[in-house]
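ARCHIVE CARD
Drawer: 12
Card no.: 0347
Subject: one protein chain, sequence and derived structure
Cross-reference: see card 0346
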Amino acid sequence: MKFHSVLTPLLAAFAVGIFGVSAQERLEIFDAHLHYNQEPKPFYSLDQVRDVFRRNGIVGIIANSRPNKGTHELADAKWPELRVVSFIRPYRVRNDIQTWFNDPTIFELIKDEYARGTYRGIGEFHIYGKAAESEWVKKIVDFAVERNLYLHAHCDEEALLILFRHNPKARIIWAHTGFSVAPARVAELLDRHKDALWGELSYRGGITGGDGKLTSDWRNLFERYSDRFLLGSDTWINERWLGYDTIFKEYRSWLAQLPPEQARRIASGNALRLFETRAQ
C-alpha cells in the first residue's frame, strides 16, 4: 500500500476536526424564512423554485407568503425531498404590514387559515415598540400558545419583550435576530427565554468581518447557542430569489468555519428538531 493512500484520509479527518465541515460534505440546509408571494403572480414557477432548492441543498422550509395562497401551493406540491412547514402570514396585501396589529379582521383571517389544519406557526409579522401592546396582538399570541404554534416575529427588542409579557409560554422565532441588537444582548435574551426563543439569521449583518471570517462575538455566540439559531433566505422581493444561490453560499462559507456539530445544528438540525412533531 502506498504511503499517500494512507495519509490522505488521515489528513482529511484532521482537516475536518480543525476547520469544520469538510469541503466534501455538503450540509443540508433548512430555509427558515421563505416567502412565495403572489403579487399578482410569483416570480418563479413551482418547477423553478424546486430547482433552486435542489441546487442549494434545501431539505426544508418555513413557508409564509402574502397572501397565504403561496404557502398553500408549496405545501400542496408535496415534493418528497422537501419538508414544508407552513406558517400563517397575517397579511392579505402589503399595506396590512402597517395595520394588522389593530385590525380585528386579521384575527379572523388567522382563525380561518388555522382551520385548514396544516399550520405550525404564525408569521412572519412586523411589529415594533409599543404597537405590540395591542389587544389584537395579545389575542394572537394567546391563540398561538393555546394551539402550540410558533410566532415568527420581525420586531425590535421592546416588541419582543412585550410579546413574551402577553404570554410567557409563547415560543418565538426572532426574524433577523434583532438587526441592531449586539451579540452580548442577544445572549442575555436567549438565556432569559430558554426553550422559548430562537434566532433566525437572514439579513443579520456583522456575523463576519470584511475578510469573511466569523467575528469573535458571533463565534462565541454560536459556540454557546448553536442549538438556538436558524438560517433563512427572506425572499420578500424578487431580487432575493435572484440572489438565492449567493445567500446560501455566504452561509456555507461561515458555517465551514465552525465545528461540524455546530454547523449542522444551525444549517438544518435545529429546525428539523423544532418541527419533528405536529402541533396538537
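Annotation on reverse: The chain has one domain: 25-274. The longest helix spans residues 3-19.
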